[in-house]
Design a protein that fits this description.
- This protein has helices at about 5-15, 15-25, 30-55, 80-90, 230-240, 250-260, 280-295, 325-340; strands at about 65-70, 75, 95-100, 110, 120-130, 140-145, 170-175, 180-185, 190-195, 200-205, 215, 245, 265, 295-300, 320.
- By secondary structure, the protein is α+β, with helices and mostly antiparallel strands.
- An eight-stranded mixed beta sheet has the order 4-3-5-6-7-8-9-10, with helices on both faces. It has a five-stranded mixed beta sheet with strand order 12-11-13-15-14, with helices on both faces.
- Strand 11, helix 5 (about 230-240) and strand 12 form a beta-alpha-beta unit.
- Helix 5 packs across helix 8 (about 325-340).
- Bound molecules: 2,6-di-O-phosphono-beta-D-fructofuranose.
- 2,6-di-O-phosphono-beta-D-fructofuranose (FDP) binds near residues 249 and 278.
- 2,6-di-O-phosphono-beta-D-fructofuranose binds near residues 130 and 131.
């Protein structure tokens, strides 16, 4: 007789990503099938990237740089290039996505065969946390799905939509296991890749971010480059008991920790780069969508990330994201300093 534990495992193993997406719609509509197919393609890219990463060091083209500098002025790693292509190849004949915007491409890529009106556009960061790759540390891919509204596929104006208009968002975390976190605006759900099955299996449904946590996550090496208000917030954190610093150098990994344990992640502007480092459309916005779905807050310090009207596809934005109590502490400190000039 099959044990109760085996039965529970069998039950768990059939809750695949595709089934979960289909079940989140009231019936088996064309929209439900489109989203299930789209998530299937995105997860395929994730599996290809995870497989390639698992052989890093053994194959020639996983570690090290390409010698190319991308549109962001950053060195392109071999894995950046591989992952970017993995997304393109996984999506190009899907019939679902007609535009692709990525950190690695100066211009959006058009997939004309898919471009009937109302098709999706995918905005993505193929490898987030590139500096971690060669040290075999956690990295991620981030994605955002919007509806391409215009008929023109030449200009990107119709892709400049506030994050609140995202249809879906998520990330894939390549850590000790490969995990995919996504939302279609109906809660935030975590799947773990079962390498034997080759499927992402639901392991944490309906994630709620803790109201508050003890982690603050920021690159303190930039301290002297921040505004006085941001410096005063960090000094306030240092004086408080209970806060602990965690910073991995990969946004996905740091925000994932905060989504599960609570706390706050910050990448503020600096004197030289007032808009910080992170990109609005394919880093801050999708993560803001997930964190807010889970009950958290994401802001640039003065405005909610999801309400910002983008002006360019590669624009950067300061990011403060996490548990409501922790983010509110940052905002209170920034506001007090702005109003009175006094440190918090
Ligand atoms: P990276 O450039 O290595 O891809 O996306 C930007 C990002 O990584 C984030 O993942 C990461 O949190 C941040 O930059 C790290 O930047 P710093 O080295 O300036 O802290």
């Amino acid at each position: 007789m099959t044990s109760t534990l085996s039965q529970a495992n069998l039950q768990r193993d059939v809750m695949t990503l595709t089934r979960h997406v289909l079940q989140s719609f009231p019936s088996y509509t064309a929209e439900a099938q489109d989203f299930a197919a789209l998530m299937g393609r995105i997860s395929l890219a994730g599996k290809m990237i995870a497989r390639h990463l698992s052989k890093a060091g053994l194959v020639e083209d996983a570690l090290g740089g390409t010698g190319i500098v991308n549109v962001q002025g950053e060195d392109v790693k071999q894995m950046d290039e591989y992952a970017n292509l993995a997304f393109i190849r996984a999506l190009e004949h899907s019939g679902l996505v007609c535009r692709l915007v990525s950190e690695e491409m100066a211009e959006s890529a058009e997939l004309p065969e898919n471009c009937s009106l109302g098709r999706f556009a995918l905005l993505f960061d193929p490898i987030d946390g590139s500096s971690n790759i060669d040290a075999d540390l956690s990295i991620g891919s981030i994605f955002s799905v919007i509806r391409a509204q215009g008929e023109s596929t030449v200009d990107d104006a119709d892709l400049l939509q506030p994050g609140a208009q995202q249809l879906a968002a998520g990330y894939i975390l390549y850590g000790p296991s490969t995990q995919l976190v996504y939302s279609l605006g109906k809660g935030v759900h975590l799947f773990t890749l079962d390498p034997g099955l080759g499927e992402f299996i639901l392991t944490k449904p309906d994630i709620q971010i803790p109201q508050q946590g003890k982690t603050y996550s920021i690159n303190e090496g930039n301290y002297c480059q921040w505004s006085g208000a941001m410096q005063s917030y960090i000094r306030w954190v240092h004086r408080r008991e209970g806060y602990t610093a965690r910073y991995s150098g990969a946004l996905v990994a740091d925000v994932h920790r905060i989504l599960l344990y609570g706390g706050v992640y910050l990448y503020p502007g600096t004197l030289a780069k007032p808009n910080g480092k992170l990109r609005l459309l394919y880093e801050a916005s999708p993560l803001a969508y997930l964190v807010e779905q889970a009950g958290g807050i994401a802001t640039n310090g003065t405005q909610g990330i999801l309400t910002i009207m983008p002006e360019a596809v590669h624009q950067r934005v300061p990011l403060i994201i996490g548990s409501p109590v922790n983010v509110q502490e940052v905002l209170t400190c920034l506001q007090e300093q702005a109003a009175t000039g006094a440190a918090c």
